[in-house]
Design brief:
With 287 residues, the chain is α/β, with parallel strands linked by helices. It has 2 domains: 33-116, Leucine Dehydrogenase, chain A, domain 1 (Rossmann fold, 3-Layer(aba) Sandwich), CATH 3.40.50.10860; 139-261, NAD(P)-binding Rossmann-like Domain (Rossmann fold, 3-Layer(aba) Sandwich), CATH 3.40.50. The chain contains 10 helices and 11 strands. The protein has helices at 13-30, 46-62, 77-87, 106-110, 124-131, 140-151, 171-180, 195-199, 244-248, 261-281; strands at 9-10, 36-42, 65-71, 93-96, 160-164, 184-188, 204-207, 225-228, 232-234, 237-239, 253-254. Strands 1-11-8-7-5-6 form a 6-stranded parallel beta sheet. It is globular and about 50 Å long. It starts with 8 loop residues before the first strand and ends in a 6-residue tail after the last helix.
Length: 287
Amino acid sequence: MLDKKNMAILLDGTKVAASILDRIKNTIKEGELTPSLAIVLCGEKPESLLYTTMKQKKATEIGITTKIHRFPEKVSQEELCLAITELNPQVDGIIIQLPLPKHLDQTVILNSIELLKDVDGLTTESLGRVLKGDEETAPATPRGIIKLLEEYNLPVKGKKITIINHSNILGKPLAMMLTNRGATVTICHEHTVELTSHTKQADILISGIGIPQSITGDMIKEGAVIFDVGISKVGDKIRGDVHGEEVQQKAAYLTPVPGGVGPVTVAMLLEKVVAVHCKKKTVKFIV
């Protein structure tokens, strides 16, 4: 039986996201704004359908007009790029639901989105700007993690941080953002030798590998802050990368799955859509 007195404090992403979304909803209502979002979906993968529907529902709830633009699995690259180019002047934000079908060049497709409309922060220019310290176009998940750190007053300056993920969506931009804040960052991936030697040194550990319960209690430092960004379906349940029961007894803070980083990521996406709309309307948007 777990001793709840010694368990990690859960970083409540659902609560943080609700606060962000309430503020955005009020901004839209009070300013009589009409922000719009286009979500591009290719194929019929159940997970992609679930995620796009969820984003559309949440956006609609707070007053963002949202449409899912569906394309067949075998859509040509030319057709998809043309459709995105035509969407650019029509909406405030465009999201390409990933992963794309294998015959499509993801970089080319993403770069069809105008910089300002790239609310996912995944175009080459968006990522390049993060490298230079401009986080306005940073990807949503790293921004969500930074937001949670700020909301819970968890400092990063001078901290050792290990990220187990080296993707453009998470690991690489997040490493730059944390470095900008004075952290010493280590990025790990499938070729990392002796992973535990890196994870046990981390004051803050961020895992996004999608292997359920792969981060165990013996892999972390006592009193560490743990961000679980991995999402896997095991039977009828959603699991994260972290073995919750073991890690909760050793860590100081932990993001739950579900209800941790995920909701804040969605809130960051929608916040960006409204920020773009306000910029276009020359209306002040308070982040």
